[in-house]
Write a structure and sequence with these properties.
Length: 356
């Protein structure tokens, strides 16, 4: 008969056996971690400012004539520079071109006639068979005819231009993003017809506090990101004229169309003081617990040592630390949550650089 005491001993033995079996099945394998190196970096205190991804070529194309719209490209159409993207009714302008062409031909014929008449009078004057007044009148008429011919050619040029601009052409490669008018509508001069955007020429436009303008320059690379992605980009240009109401100035940064999209909101990290060299680690290396911040330093024997640190200034994904760390020390940046001092770990082949 099994007593209560023997039953407790049996249950304890079963628990020990179960835990031993589980340990043998893999619970005792060293945890896998990802590491990066602590390194000396030039960092400066920074402030985050909002920005927006825009296209450097974003145009609302308008009509240059008063005419009826007869065709317009669909939204989403990809076009090349010079492609026709809208067309207006051209009957009136075609007639005007024909009329101007006829006027040019008429004035040209008049010039040819007067030139031959003047040549005939010159021959007669050599034999004193023509009046001087008649000769002078022909010279004057020829000059006026040539002037009228030039005016007619100018009018023909205007008519050709009008015919040309009955078609709205793409001024750059891009995508039709918006149709502002519909087929059949009567347009006036300067009426907006459609919007064309180049998705491959992107930049971030941000407005930063004036106190940061002295700590950046053209070509500097700044960190930027949002809830979906992070990266960095060089400053393309700075407009160092502050708004007296907001005390902000404009910064424009070139970004890649492979990563960012027009209209996306981002946050920029703008320095607020001169950079200084500090020992920095990736922010992901910090383990925040009740007793304070720590990092796990990896030894050559693949064991980790928990190192208390004091954090300093941060910039992007890096943060300054003070503690028992040196330049080049390997610290855990993934998988540190369940570690303890002296634990053996397995380093994953996936490494993170200190700049990420």
């Amino acid at each position: 008969m099994i007593t209560i005491r023997n039953r407790r001993i049996l249950l304890l033995s079963l628990c020990v056996a179960a835990s031993t079996g589980a340990f043998a099945q893999g619970w005792g394998e060293p945890p896998k971690v990802v590491t990066a190196n602590a390194s000396m970096q030039m960092l400066s205190p920074s402030v985050e400012v909002p920005g927006t991804v825009v296209s450097r070529f974003d145009s609302r194309l308008a009509s240059e004539l008063a005419a009826k719209l007869v065709w317009i490209a669909e939204v989403g159409t990809e076009v090349k520079e010079g492609d026709t993207i809208a067309r207006m009714e051209d009957f009136t302008f075609r007639i005007q071109e024909m009329e101007a062409q006829s006027l040019v031909e008429r004035e040209q014929a008049r010039v040819v006639f007067l030139e031959s008449e003047l040549k005939r009078l010159e021959q007669l004057s050599e034999r004193n068979l023509s009046a001087k007044s008649q000769y002078d009148q022909t010279v004057s008429d020829l000059a006026m005819a040539r002037s009228d011919h030039q005016i007619a050619e100018a009018q023909l040029g205007y008519a050709k231009i009008s015919m040309h601009v009955t078609e709205i052409r793409a001024p750059f490669d891009g995508v039709i993003t918006e149709r502002l008018r519909s087929i059949g509508e009567r347009l006036n001069i300067a009426d907006e017809v459609l919007r064309l955007v180049d998705p491959n020429s992107l930049e971030v436009v941000a407005r930063a506090p004036l106190r940061t303008v002295n700590f950046i320059k053209k070509g500097d690379v700044l960190a930027l990101g949002n809830d979906f992605r992070n990266g960095d980009a060089p400053i393309r240009t700075i407009v160092p004229f502050g708004n007296p109401q907001s005390h902000m100035f404009e910064v424009r940064m070139a970004v890649s169309s492979d990563v960012w999209t027009v209209g996306e909101s981002v946050r920029l990290s703008m320095p607020t003081a001169a950079a200084k060299e500090v020992l920095a680690v990736p922010r992901d290396a910090l383990v925040l617990r009740r007793e304070g911040a720590t990092v796990f330093k990896l030894s050559e024997e693949s064991t980790v040592t928990q190192v208390p640190v004091v954090v300093g200034l941060g910039a992007g994904m890096l943060i300054e630390v003070f503690g028992d760390l040196a330049d080049g020390d390997e610290v855990v940046v993934r998988g540190a949550e369940g570690l303890s001092d002296g634990m053996t770990v397995t380093v994953s082949p996936t490494q993170l650089s200190s700049q990420e």
